[in-house]
Amino acid sequence: MGLETLSPALILLLAAVLIGLLRGHARTAVVLLAPLLTLWAVWQVPDGVQGTVKFLSYYIEPVEGSPLRRLFATVFAIMVFVGGLYAYRVARWYELSAAFAYASGAVGVCFAGDLITLFLYWELMALFSTVVVWCGGTPAARAAGIRYAIMHLLGGVILKVGIEGVVVGTGSIQVQPMLAHDFSTWMILIGILINAAAPPVSAWLADAYPESSPTGSVFLSAFTTKTAVLALILLFPGEPVLIGVGLFMVMYGIIYALLENDARRILAYSIVNQVGFMVCAVGIGTQMALNGAAAHAFAHIIYKALLFMSAGVVIYRTGKSKCTDLGGLFRTMPLTTACGIIGALAISSFPLTSGFTTKSMISQAAVDESLVVVYMLLTAASAGVFLHAGIKFPWFVFFQRDSGLRPKDAPWNMGLAMVLFAGLCIVLGVFPELLYSLLPYPVEYVPYTAGKVLFYLQLLLFSGLAFFVLLPLMKRTETISLDTDWLWRRAGPALLRLAEKGLAIMGAVIDRLRLRSQQLAQRLATRYLGQPHTADSKERGVFARSWPIGTTALWIAGLLSAYVLLYYL
Amino acid sequence: MSDNSKHSQADEQLHWLVRPATIRKLWIGFSVVLALTVVAQSVIYVKGYFGIDAWFGFGAVYGFASCLLMVLVAKVLGVVLKRPGDYYQEPGATHSTNDSKRVVEESVDGT
């Protein structure tokens, strides 16, 4: 086994262990240097499979390089670095350690050449992301973490069932494109889609992420869903089901974000919305679409982390996350406000931001395939993104009314992390070639034509107008919105309680019946089989009692006739 | 600290950004920009892919209309889906306001 079969992910895994062992500056050094080392290692992986290792009776391929895999690993490594910078002074060591192990799983999936390696790193992610959720430290975080773990372990089992089926059916453990045409491939698809927060289980995302700590949610926003997008690109490019699933996610994210009151939950719903764009692109499956999905994932990780960072600073400084409690923070938090607005513009794909140069590729892919309805829905959704994330988030958190809160602006490290990502959002928007040159397929797409920019400006600015015109309709209420998780958080337990009550009633009825039949048998026995108390007043068993002669004679006659009957048969 | 005096001044006197006069100016400015984006279409050619999306001002109308529709759909769904914030809390459990405790515990940095 050579050095080339060691995945860059192992650097982060080692760092996760070291973070636990080291203290003070040494730990800070690990937090900041390990991601950079990983980034370097990612770019040392050449194309193709880098050797095999025998594991059980399979030859697994722990490291396989390709432009697409390197692209995702690159953005994951950048994310760990900036996330580490953002978090290291506030987060507990175990949260950092878990976040690094979690990121290690994500980077491992990027380079997994076979399904077994992919599954192992997949589960590593599930385990340590649960720990990150738990690091929220509140009872609500504990409960949400358990629900999160159940969902992801269930997803893991479904994925494993699918992998077993494919391995048995085809004899190959390769990660290669397939279509969902039989049971096993469907299981793999469903297992991946659970991690992508696809319907009907999208609720896990908005349930768990907002319960984590302000720093934890920054890490959580980046890895799980985007690894699922990568897995979809690798395994199911052009799977038509994904177009519908993606469009549903896009609309679901917008509607739920519009209803939501909690700032981080708004952002969580908009993750579902954005991943919907990518899932839809994977479903379209052309080179343009897959380029778009990969580029959008890259840009999305950056601006979404930026948004979670600005929300995280607000929560860290004020302890509040509900829109009804916040407002007017721009007075004392100018940097956080500016970075939040840049993130919000990027997610809304405003021209000159990374969202514009990447998301418009997906729309273009729909145009190229003449998918009119898909294009129109994606365009409407772009307007909706500006509505729910682009304006709603900064407006209700930083402007709106004066909440009277005068918190300090971000600590320097959090501020620096936000400035780095805000800068990247704009750099990728102004110089899209930087990202285009990393994409898996050659790019001939020109994002900036006067007509396209004008069209998007009309679309976005008039959705902005719609926001302020319809503001009375969007009054924040202290509510949550029901989702499918109602089924297992309310209906399930209620059904259980009902079943429990039903069983208890049945038990009581049976008890009463038993008692009655016992009494009846007792009476019958007393009547026909003699008194329980004989002459000496001691209680005896049924057959030890003194029986009336008549009964005894009847029994004997019965037994003898049975004997005679059996003898002649 | 100069910060404090600055704050108290800002509190007595509205921040310039939220004064009614500024807001009125912002509305006017915003309206002009909106009008410009539509008018600009008479100069700049917007390539339509499916016929209707090349219509004059299509982006503006489509953006506004789809947002209106989404807000209305959300409003209607909200009637069915919205529940009080403590809906999922166990009846006996104490209400934990998400993050406030954590912040007190963790405000260790000196900036």
From TrEMBL, chain A:
It is found in: Cell membrane; Membrane. It is a multi-pass membrane protein. GO terms for molecular function: oxidoreductase activity. InterPro entries: ComplexI-like_HydComp, ND/Mrp_TM. Keywords: Cell membrane, Membrane, Oxidoreductase, Transmembrane, Transmembrane helix. Its EC number is 1.6.5.3. Residues 112-379 form the NADH:quinone oxidoreductase/Mrp antiporter transmembrane domain. The chain crosses the membrane at residues 6-22, 29-46, 71-88, 100-122, 186-206, 218-236, 242-259, 266-285, 297-316, 328-352, 372-391, 412-435, 455-474, 547-568. One of its GO terms (cellular component) is plasma membrane. This is Na(+)/H(+) antiporter subunit D. It comes from Pseudohalioglobus lutimaris.
UniProtKB/TrEMBL annotation, chain B:
The chain crosses the membrane at residues 26-46, 52-74. It comes from the Bacteria. Keywords: Membrane, Transmembrane, Transmembrane helix. Residues 91-111 are annotated as: Disordered. This is Uncharacterized protein. It comes from Pseudohalioglobus lutimaris.
